[in-house]
Write a structure and sequence with these properties.
- The strands form six sheets. An eight-stranded mixed beta sheet has the order 2-3-1-12-13-14-19-20, sandwiched between helices. Strands 16-15-17-18 form a four-stranded antiparallel beta sheet. A three-stranded antiparallel beta sheet has the order 4-9-6, with no helix packed on it.
- It is α+β, with helices and mostly antiparallel strands.
- Helix 2 packs parallel to helix 7.
Length: about 475
């Protein structure tokens, strides 16, 4: 059955394009966080939460410094290193999912001054069961004992002076804790259940609807090295919320792919080749932590936009706030520019080089080398196209449901052309929106459907420059015998 024509849509080609966004943009990441540190852990499961600063991240997702929690990698790179916001985080680690938790049986703990510190991460406070060392009757929380998290995320258990544990030197404690390893690719991919509840990557559809923020960059650090997750991200980037375009930043595994020469084979196995996708390899070292490159690159891309009046620009050959790159086993790597060009860039893979400082290297999307058009092969070119398309969709959504009349059409054309004119020549070589009679027959108009055409061109990213240096003997002759020389 043919789709009923309603709402806004865009199409693109190598020579003409169309049209995009004005709402505040952000990056959005799907992964796991230490939600046990929150008062209501379940409230932070499969819901898009906006983070504006580090305090928000710690309050809404828990304070920690453990890269095993992949969303920590995102907010560390974004908020601590690049200092960019907002970011949107979707946690899938679910205390109600038996695979996502681990039960720890009761054992004896010796009290010191009436308290004990349980040095284990991920403990769910409401799961703690305390009994006397010689008994099995559970003590009562807030009556016989109290619990709290310390600054490291461990749990302090203190007995009260008036409760049933008063005077005990040893108590038994059992609990349930989060199990990050229990989160699998299927949890990240998610879906929509019989109650129409979204989970995983599908939650990204709610970001713009709920918060009026365009998720221009989407990622799933670590998990995106799985082909199924990478494919799901790539598909979602094509149309987030059935409306917006995004860039999907994914990781290329570096556990078995330890040599740069093997990266192309790894890309083929990953199986993503879309214009909307950026593939990163290997991991990076940031402030001593080994994190997935997709977390760094997403923050870097957002930072570059922030420094460019909110308009996408290339990150190629720009400073990356890292101290090195490494494979999954921690082995540090260092590649020349030529190695990166020959084994990564020409296959649409982004990496890092060191020239007095660490820099990103690569500006080709995953569609390269199969695609040659600027708005297909170039990461910046795709992002510019997304920017324009999303601008059109968000700026003129109000017109849906209104009268299709000449004044409204003219207003849209004039307004969009004014926006394009402000982007020329700094960000675009040129741009113009048209409403063409031959593309809008009266039969189409009477159905309330209008088509606009946008011509534009962004500047290609400089890939190289050549200069020829000629040793010229005539210059030597002039120095000795010509001119005013004596």
């Amino acid at each position: 059955m043919e789709d009923y024509k309603y709402g806004l849509k865009t199409t693109r080609s190598a020579n003409s394009a169309r049209v995009i966004e004005k709402a505040t943009v952000a990056q959005a990441a799907v992964g796991i966080a230490p939600i046990n540190l929150l008062d209501e852990p379940q409230a932070a499961v499969n819901t898009p939460i906006i983070i504006e600063n580090l305090a928000d991240a710690q309050a809404l997702f828990g304070k920690c410094s453990n890269p095993a929690y992949t969303l920590w990698q995102t907010y560390f790179a974004s908020l601590k290193k690049y200092k960019v916001a907002p970011i949107v985080l979707v946690n899938v680690l679910d205390p109600d999912n038996p695979q996502h938790v681990t039960a720890v049986g009761s054992k004896d703990y010796t009290l010191e001054k009436g308290s004990v510190n349980i040095k284990d991460e991920g403990i769910l406070l409401d799961s703690i069961i305390v009994t006397k060392a010689a008994g099995d009757t559970p003590a009562k929380i807030n009556e016989d004992y109290v619990t709290s998290f310390d600054s490291s995320g461990y749990v302090d258990v203190a007995v009260t002076t008036t409760g049933s544990l008063s005077g005990e030197s040893t108590i038994k404690i059992g609990y349930t804790k989060l199990n990050p390893d229990g989160v699998k690719a299927a949890d990240i991919i998610g879906g929509v259940d019989e109650n129409e509840k979204r989970s995983g990557i599908e939650v990204l559809d709610e970001v713009y609807m709920m918060h009026n923020i365009v998720p221009a960059i989407i990622s799933a650090p670590k998990y995106s090295k799985d082909p199924a997750v990478a494919t799901a991200l790539e598909a979602k980037a094509e149309l987030v919320g059935d409306l917006l375009n995004a860039t999907a930043v994914v990781d290329l595994e570096c556990e078995t792919t330890k040599k740069i020469q093997d990266a192309k084979t790894a890309k083929d196995k990953l199986g993503v080749f879309g214009r909307q996708t950026v593939i990163c390899w290997p991991k990076v070292v940031m402030a001593g932590y080994e994190i997935y490159a997709s977390a760094e690159y997403s923050a870097h891309m957002q930072y570059a936009m922030m420094q460019n009046a909110g308009i996408p620009t290339s990150t190629d050959n720009t400073e990356a706030m890292i101290e090195g790159i490494c494979t999954e086993d921690g082995e540090r790597k260092l590649y020349t520019e030529k190695q990166c060009a020959n084994y990564l860039m020409q296959y649409g893979i982004v990496s890092y080089k060191y020239q007095n400082m660490w820099k990103t290297i690569g500006e080709n999307s995953a569609a390269f080398p199969d695609e040659a058009a600027q708005n297909q092969k170039s990461i910046k070119g795709v992002a510019i196209c997304n920017y324009l398309e999303n601008r059109f969709k968000t700026d003129y959504a109000y017109q849906i449901g209104r009268d299709t009349k000449p004044a409204a059409i003219k207003s849209i054309v004039n307004d969009f052309n004014y926006m394009l004119s402000k982007m020329v020549p700094d960000y675009l070589a040129g741009g113009e929106m048209e409403f063409r009679e031959d593309e809008n027959p009266i039969e189409q108009i009477q159905e309330g459907y209008s088509k606009f055409r946008v011509h534009y061109a962004d500047y290609p990213t400089t890939k190289g420059m050549d200069a020829e240096f000629v040793w010229d003997v005539s210059d030597l002759e002039k120095a000795f015998y010509g001119g005013d020389n004596e």
